[in-house]
Amino acid sequence: MRDSIPLRFTTPPRRGRTPSKTGALAGQVQSLTRGLNLLEALAKADGGITLTDLAHRVDLPPSTTHRLLSTLERMGYVYQEGDLGLWYVGLHAFTVGAGFLANRDFIAQSHVYMRRLMEQSGETANFAILDGTEAVFIAQVQCHEMMRILVKLGSRVPLHASGVGKAIFASLPDEQIDAILKVKGLPRITPHTIVAPETMWAALKVIRHRGYSFDDEEHAPGVRCVAATVYDEHAEPLGAISLAGPSSRLPDERIRQLGPVVAHTAEELTRRVGGRWPHPY
After folding, report:
1. Which of 51, 198, 252, 271 is the most buried (most CB within 10 A)?
2. pLDDT, tens only, 192-206
């Protein structure tokens, strides 16, 4: 299959809300917006950061920056340490963030994105998570077609021979992939299953490069699938979202169109559940 053509996604600006110099929008509390901007800048800093550098990053006077930091410090959201007086994100900020992670329901949240994918493509959308050396389907939004691809929730598929599995497989560290290959091998499931390690490594490299996987009847005859990984807060695979349909409705050109759409949706869902998109390989 030829390389896909990336799609560009843009969000139109909202009318009637003009950003101020510090990024605050009309109707927002300026001091709160500035304080949160400081926390975001600290979170993005590689280690601690000086008051002067931090003020420059958020485009505020040093005096204003210091006043806001002092308030955040008293509340435990930031702290200052070291001979250079570097500022860091505090423990209380972590506690608040951990509260979100503990209460998120990514299965329920994924349904919104799966339904949108189904409506955009006309094919069934699925969500699967990694369990050991297999992917397990945990959610599904069925399409409206008479002929549709259905999977039983809780069913398992191998990492090397499924759309969701290959997406997750490619997102694992090389040493973990190598260990799985040595233990599980690449058993043939259909005539199209990849069974040669060098071919699998090449396929995983392509998946990493373009951002989505492609199952070309490798797990079930007559079924094609395109999938992309959803990541957690450590930039590790949380699961994969996919579209699956009969091969007759998913020719190569259709796969090239849907692949970037699924990848973009996976990135959106990653951010929605508090995950972090990994750096490019």
Report:
1. 51
2. 999 999 999 999 999
